[in-house]
Design goal:
341 residues, alpha/beta, Quinone Oxidoreductase, Chain A, domain 1, Rossmann fold, 2 domains, 7-stranded mixed sheet, 6-stranded parallel sheet, 9 helices, 25% helix
Length: 341
């Protein structure tokens, strides 16, 4: 039988987050926690720091004391619209880095006190924007000792998306040419690094002020999406990673060689599929999945110094609405992270 003991002193109290590790139970004895919660859909103002029951791990699950949690564009979209999740009340967040507090029945990979990071099952496993969260054991991997919890929390969803797109779906190989749209964004800047690690020639689209950042990541060429046409290329690409969708996805078909692969992170339009069929290229839409093998691959790249998230800003959990406001501008370089402990 697995241990269910709770380790003491999981982290110091940070008044800015309104986190109080001494708070243990409601008046009826139920353990409670603080979470960035919403009861209606809407703008950032609907987010409130609320006291909720602390979850308990079920079969094959672990309870994690959250130290930091990444914020992704999908959080912003789900706050405003019912896309995949049911209507509120809800607590968002899929990225998490923290410490195992308790293990459920059947868990053998982790024990209380272990530092882990991972992505909760997308989309229905949301809930990491809180002091505690539960999730299936195999959604997590051991946090690399080389990075802190903020860095670790910035990685899971975006890095898994890039890995599953380029490596597992497109089968990117050394010597191939890849075009990455929105290359300075959360997924994009990690995709640039993963593609370079695979030995590919990387071109990224971004506004001109972000080109130096992309070159520092290893990009071989940059295209200013404001003043240049990415379809004006002397050589076709083997792979395109598209985080924009719409017309960008459709036009991207034209820069691929026959047999090339377009991986879009936005559901494609019929004209994209028709264009792909005519051009004899493969066009697919990817929805990221929790995956321990992928998380371990990401962790290994981190340990080898080949992958690092760029965290442009951090916000205490209590200021999550401000983080959403910034994310909505669409101008963030890299990732935003909520700090909890």
């Amino acid at each position: 039988m697995t241990s269910t003991n709770t380790p003491e002193n999981l982290g110091s109290t940070n008044p800015a987050t309104a986190t109080d590790s001494a708070r243990s139970a409601a008046t009826d004895g139920t353990p409670v926690m603080l979470a960035l919660h919403q009861t209606v859909l809407g703008g950032p103002e609907v987010l409130r720091l609320a006291e909720l029951p602390r979850p308990a791990p079920g079969l094959g699950e672990i309870l994690v004391a959250v130290h930091a949690a990444g914020l992704n564009p999908t959080d912003v979209k789900h706050r405003a619209l019912s896309i995949f999740l049911p209507p509120p009340p809800l607590t968002l967040g899929w990225d998490v880095s923290g410490t195992v507090v308790e293990t459920g029945p059947g868990v053998t990979l982790f024990q209380p006190g272990d530092e882990v990071f991972g992505m909760l099952p997308y989309p229905y496993g949301a809930g990491s924007h809180a002091e505690y969260v539960t999730g299936p054991t195999r959604a997590f991997a051991a946090k690399p000792a080389e990075i802190d919890h903020v860095q670790a929390a910035a990685l899971p969803l975006a890095a898994l998306t890039a890995w599953q797109s380029l490596v597992e779906t497109a089968g990117l190989r050394a010597g191939q040419r890849v075009l990455i749209h929105a290359a300075a964004g959360g997924v994009g800047h990690l995709a640039v690094q993963i593609a370079k690690e695979r030995g590919a020639h990387v071109t990224g689209t971004a506004s001109a002020p972000k080109h130096e950042f992309l070159r520092e990541l290893g990009a071989d060429a940059c295209v200013d999406h404001r003043s240049e046409d990415f379809t004006d290329t002397a050589e076709p690409y083997d792979v395109v990673l598209d985080a924009l969708g719409g017309e960008t996805a459709t036009r991207s078909v034209g820069v691929l060689r026959p047999g090339g692969v377009l991986v879009s992170l936005v559901p494609g339009a019929e004209d994209t599929s028709a264009a792909a069929e005519k051009a004899q290229v493969r066009a697919v839409t990817l929805l990221v999945e929790h995956d321990q093998a992928g998380m371990r691959a990401v962790a290994e790249l981190v340990r080898r110094g080949r992958l690092r998230a760029h965290v442009s800003d951090t916000f205490p959990l209590a200021e999550g609405a401000r983080a959403h406001e910034l994310a909505e501008t669409g101008r963030t370089v890299g990732k935003l992270v909520l700090t909890v402990r």
